[in-house]
Design a protein that fits this description.
- With about 290 residues, the chain is an alpha+beta fold.
- It has 3 domains: about 100 residues, 3-Layer(aba) Sandwich (Glutaredoxin), CATH 3.40.30; about 70 residues, Alpha Horseshoe (Serine Threonine Protein Phosphatase 5, Tetratricopeptide repeat); about 80 residues, Serine Threonine Protein Phosphatase 5, Tetratricopeptide repeat (Alpha Horseshoe), CATH 1.25.40.10.
- The chain is built from 13 helices and 5 strands.
- The relative contact order is 0.07.
């Protein structure tokens, strides 16, 4: 069993504590809760694999477990350290801290997530994909990592894969959909699909057509869609606000819906979002 539950095996090369125990072992029952607490405090830096020697005797034999409890640190496929019996709390904490150090320090998984997000922001899609892919093995990061992979797919012009990943998010992690990073990814994929379903005309053609018929909301909306598809969202916001100034409920609220999707994809802290929301509020209050 993995702790915190449920846990798949850690990423390749990540440190793991092997806790060999048996249901009849009284010292094991004292030790395991302490290990669980220390591992939980490590915030993903290490994993704890609890191995019942009565159910997996071959593994215990292969690793020469002679007494219980026995705890081992395995890192990059090698035994880094071990102990048998019970340790004083201070020594047990030091033992777990050794595993944490091998992982690169406390909260290393959060640092890995930040690094993957920074790589994506910097345009290094390959590195971001690798980083998010590794984080998929950590349950506490799986939803956000899946959202990150959807954004990587968009960067690679693979809208179909991005949509599949978003569908998986809705299916497997409905309770996580309100997290900002996940909402942002879902909105970006939705915007990409929206832009892909817009006009076949180029931006130049749409602008010329709109110059000839400035009151035509459908043309302005198609221009906004095309701008979104070209990642020119600030200009798209201007066009959508122009529609809303004239008709707040045009096309059953299509302009407002697309505008809000843009804000969601950018995040509340983005200057375009903050400015756009102020302008939208002024229009609503007119």
């Amino acid at each position: 069993r993995w702790w915190p539950p449920p846990r798949p095996p850690p990423p390749l090369g990540g440190p793991v504590l092997l806790d060999f125990y048996a249901d009849w072992c009284a010292p094991c029952k004292q030790l395991t809760p302490k290990l669980e607490k220390l591992v939980a405090e490590a915030k993903g830096s290490v994993r704890l694999a609890k191995i019942n020697v009565d159910k997996l005797p071959e593994l215990a034999q292969a690793l020469q477990v002679a007494s219980l409890p026995t705890v081992m640190i395995v890192h990059k496929g090698k035994l880094a350290d071990s102990f048998q019996g019970l340790l004083p709390d201070a020594q047990l904490k030091a033992f777990v801290e050794k595993a944490i150090a091998l992982a690169g320090g406390p909260a290393s998984s959060e640092k890995a997530l930040e690094a993957a997000e920074a790589a994506l922001e910097g345009g290094d899609v390959a590195e971001a994909t690798r980083g998010f892919g590794e984080l998929m093995s950590l349950p506490e990061h799986t939803p956000v990592a899946m959202a990150g992979l959807a954004l990587c797919a968009l960067k690679d012009d693979n809208l179909s894969l991005a949509q599949d990943l978003v569908a998986d998010l809705h299916k497997k992690f409905p309770a996580e959909l309100t997290k900002p990073a996940i909402r942002k990814a879902i909105s970006k994929v939705g915007l990409a699909a929206e832009g892909g379903g817009g006009s076949d005309k180029s931006l130049v053609e749409l602008r010329l057509a709109l110059d000839a018929s400035p009151a035509e909301h459908t043309l302005r909306y198609e221009l906004a869609q095309a701008l979104v598809a070209q990642d020119q969202v600030e200009e798209a916001v201007v066009e959508l606000l122009a529609i809303l100034k004239k008709d707040r409920v045009w096309n059953e609220g299509a302009a407002k819906a697309l505008l809000l999707n843009i804000f969601e994809s950018l995040g509340n802290a983005h200057e375009v979002t903050k400015k756009g929301r102020r302008q939208l509020a002024n229009i609503v209050l007119m």
